[in-house]
Amino acid sequence: MGKYLARRLLNYLVLVFIATSMAYLLAALTLNPRANYEGRNPPIPKASIDRTLSAFNINNETPILTRYGHWLNGVVHGDFGRDWDGGSVNGNLGRKMWVSGQLLLIGTVLGGLVGIAAGAYAAVKQYRIPDNLLSTGAFVLLAMPVFVLAILLQVIAAKLNVNVFHHRVFEYSGQYNPALSGGFFSHIGDRLNHLIFPTLTLLLAGASYLMLYQRNAMLDVLGSDYVRTARAKGLRRTTALRRHALRTALIPSVTLFTYAFATIFVGATFTEIIYGWHGMGEWFVTSIQSSDTNAVAAITMVVAILVLFASMLQDVVVGILDPRVRVG
After folding, report:
1. Tens of pLDDT along 22-47?
2. Which residue has the higher pLDDT, 199 or 239?
3. At what angle do helices 280-289 and 89-124 cross, to 10 degrees?
4. pTM for the full model?
5. How many other β-carbons are positioned within 10 Å of the β-carbon of residue 49?
6. Do 270 and 146 share a domain, yes or no?
7. pLDDT in the model for residue 266
8. Rounded Cα distance, 252 and 65, in Å
9. What is the pLDDT of residues 126-137, one digit of tens each?
10. Structural domain includes residue 93
11. Mean pLDDT, the chain, as a whole number?
């Protein structure tokens, strides 16, 4: 198992380097940071623009390989460079990752657990009322765009505040209330309150497709020979389902969940924008809009590294669930 994981890690590191390098080269060739300085009134002299862009290593008139070499040297030393207006990419990266981490970690993990549990339960109750209700709900959520779901939950929160509680109980905009006074626990409660509805949005969106996927995977193994053999040997139905059917059906769902968790880190753009969370997804969009080459490359590297860790986690979990992959 150890040699197997070591080989996989080496492969993933090479892929991270290739993916990040390709992302930087693509961004450097297609984005135009110069446009942020042109067209101003009064106009900025071209020589001043060139000096500024060169200082930030984003001058499109500098040969691409020269820029790439400077950028790569900085990354090796832990410096992702400057954005188009001189801000530190490292500083922004740390803040945005913290914001997205708070929002996504809870929502996606809970969504994965709820989706897998609901899918397994629906498969066991195939064609009965619980299965029909869960499957219909999952299809409705899948058909609903995430931004519609987020806005719908915001409307529900506002209606509850006005019509049920008659004052603002649920918060659904921003990360916290900057005007809040009180001690440590008041601020913790305020932040948790702001987490409820964006977390619920991610939970429902993630659980819907995982539920259907897990249901189909579970149905594929319920009639397998090894499950029937376990029942014939005297195992109770719940024990046979848990030890044999669910363990095998979890393998494809684990793979799907781990990769989805890595990519959703910058994929929850609508959720972050609608709820006023200024995280990685929103930053990625604004970086492309402002032709911020270094920021786009840094975000891509973070996603690539997250995919690497997700792949390693998937290999470990699948190795636990399926001993056949423990080679070498």
Report:
1. 999 999 999 999 988 887 888 889 99
2. 199
3. 130
4. 0.81
5. 19
6. yes
7. 67
8. 41
9. 899 999 999 999
10. no
11. 86
Q: Choose between 39 and 145: higher pLDDT.
A: 145
Asked if pLDDT for residue 326 goes beyond 60, the answer is no
Convert the chain into a string of H (helix), E (strand) and C (coil): CHHHHHHHHHHHHHHHHHHHHHHHHHHHHHCCHHHHCCCCCCCCCHHHHHHHHHHCCCCCCCCHHHHHHHHHHHHHCCCCCECCCCCEHHHHHHHHHHHHHHHHHHHHHHHHHHHHHHHHHHHHCCCCHHHHHHHHHHHHHHHCCHHHHHHHHHHHHHHHHHHHCCCCCCCCCCCCCCCCCCCHHHHHHHHHHHHHHHHHHHHHHHHHHHHHHHHHHHHHHHCCHHHHHHHHCCCCHHHHHHHHHHHHHHHHHHHHHHHHHHHCCCCCHHHHHHHCCCCHHHHHHHHHHCCCHHHHHHHHHHHHHHHHHHHHHHHHHHHHHCHHHCCC
Q: Tell me which amino acid residue 61 is.
A: E
Are residue 173 and residue 249 in the same domain, yes or no? yes
Mean pLDDT of 107-134: 90
Whether 188 is in a domain gets the answer yes
Q: How far apart are CA 62 and CA 29, in angstroms?
A: 11
pLDDT surpassing 70 at residue 263: no
Is residue 91 in some structural domain? no
Q: Are residues 118 and 266 in the same domain?
A: yes
> Could you count the other beta carbons within 10 Å of the beta carbon of residue 3?
9
Give tens-digit pLDDT for 169-178. 899 888 888 8
| CA triple 189-190-195, angle to 5 deg | 95
Which residue shows structure tokens 């916290």? 176
Count structural domains, the chain.
2
| Residue 102 and residue 229 in one domain | yes
When pLDDT is averaged across residues 246-269 and rounded to a whole number, the result is: 75
